[in-house]
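Students often ask what a holo structure prediction actually looks like on paper. The answer is less mysterious than it sounds. You provide the chain, you provide the ligand, and the output is a string of discrete structure tokens encoding the 3D arrangement of the protein together with adenosine-5'-triphosphate.
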Amino acid sequence: MVSAKSHVQELERVGRGDPSGRDTPVLQSWLRCLNDYRLDPTQAQEAYILPETELKEHRDEAEELIRIGRSAVEGLFRHVQDQAYVLLLSDARGVTVDFMGDPTFDNQLRRAGLYLGSEWSEHRAGTCAVGACIVSGEPVIIHQDDHFDTSHIGLTCTAAPIYDTLGDLTAVLDISQLRSPTAKASQQLAMHLVATTARRIELSNLMARTRNDWILRLSRSPDFLDVDPEAAISIDASGRISGMTHGGFRALARTLDLGDGVMRSLVGERISRFLDIDVDDLPKLMRGQPDGERVLRTRSSAALFASAIAPVERLRGTPVPAPRVPRVLRELSFGDPAMEAVQLRASKLVGRDIPICIQGETGAGKEYLARAIHDSHPDAGRFVAVNCAAIPESLIESELFGYAPGAFTGAAPRGKQGLIEAADGGTLFLDEIGDMPLGLQARLLRVLAEGEVTPVGAHRPRPVRFRLISASHHRLEALVESGRFRQDLYFRLNAATLSLPPLRERRDLDGLIDHMLRRVAQEHGAPLRLSAAARRSLKAHPWPGNLRELANALRVAAAFSDDGEIGPDDLPEQLSRPKAETPPMRNRPGLEIFDQLAACGGNVSELARRLGVDRSTVHRRLRRLSAG
Ligand SMILES: Nc1ncnc2c1ncn2[C@@H]1O[C@H](COP(=O)(O)OP(=O)(O)OP(=O)(O)O)[C@@H](O)[C@H]1O
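The corresponding structure tokens follow.
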């Protein structure tokens, strides 16, 4: 590697106009750094990582792109992770909004700026792949001392732009290494991979956004036309262009010899201006037609292989129906607006490969909701629930990951399958994820990134595929801020957040009471009625233990009621007694735990600390009480 001193000298020579053997994109970027941004090559600047709140804004804006790009980016990462590559998805301002790297090298990656939240705009970081790509709009390799700032001259970075369907650069996909061979040519394959992945993301984006239009896929060769075309254009029912990938723009621009920078202006043009077809010809280009017939001519007489996809509406014959909330999800509430919003959002996530994070106070129904989402899918596989707070820390690893035969003293001789593997093909529900020890968070992150689990003591990873739903009563963001929860895991888990309202804020208490009473009556084996006075007591209670406390109260009342009529005296103490009275110890022992929990703001860990017991003990007590 060149020394910082000789690097600065070279930059100064270029600044004076001396000839240089560097690639043109690198030289152009150096000159922008020196002349436009007035960066001082002698002042090395560490990589800049955005503060949490700012990063969240960038991520929120890029949410859809991150979701659409996720599977392509994960696919690329699987190919390159063995070569210690890191992947960064940055937004159009150069801020890294998604990141994949080996968690083992976290500290080094963060220091080098190859991390979530790093800003790689050219005016801040100097010549770098993301920054140069944003300015030029072209894929670029910035290898080692191509970087402007001496802090970055050990890195090799290759980036490709991602354009939105109207032609604006919306993101940059970057693949980087902390250490690499000296020759720049070593990064050509990286360049090819990153450009291909960017093209696929653009295609997914186009397909997702233009469901009511035709999609025309084009390539200069028939190979992979249906699965990985060079270019794609969406066309509306009147034959006008409604969007395109960047490859699509190039294909059109070539036909009329148009220059760069006019992509946006092609939207709204008739496709027949560029290609020898109109919208009525598109059905002939659909899959299933003979390959030889799926060729068309451009207005400049070049031949292109083409493949058309009909609008979704046309394929179904009817307009796309609004999502209906499946029955299991519908039964979660009885007219509460906040819950209805949760139910609608949840119904859109059923059967999708999007991690869901459920937030809500203890007993608010997080696991119940997770099961309802799972059960709403007809082919859902197993539902494996893991309470990270209830399993003692020393056992979590082997419970989750399983272990190989003879992995440790006392291990079962045939080894043991872990809960993650047990969820293969189904749903893994990680309850109280905020209580997962930091070391295991890194291991879980690896499972999620790689789709593989390695049992304790095993040498070979096993592939796993599951839907992930996590839950926490902690505000995970606060845990991230205090360093108790990994930020990268947090971002991976909460692709979609569902926040359950606490029971005291719900406006459907009457409906809920009736619904739960019917269920308790079934368990009880006899009909139950609630007196008006008992209902008033239930409605006056603040429900610190939420739905669990309500279910529990009704079970207790059912047990005390003599003739199936529940009166106020049948309710647990904390509900039936006037607020100022000292409780006589008449009720089932242990129910006061709900009040104690409320005093701790619903925080099980805090209550465990105050009682001087394990979190798992508190959970066991709560569960025992709610099991009636
Ligand atoms: N919508 C609902 N209708 C009927 N009963 C419900 C509903 N939601 C939750 N419950 C009941 O409330 C109790 C607590 O629910 P659940 O275990 O899902 O809460 P949680 O938020 O996951 O609790 P924790 O934070 O302690 O893990 C359970 O007994 C469950 O059966």
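Residues 181 and 187 are 9 Å apart (CA to CA).
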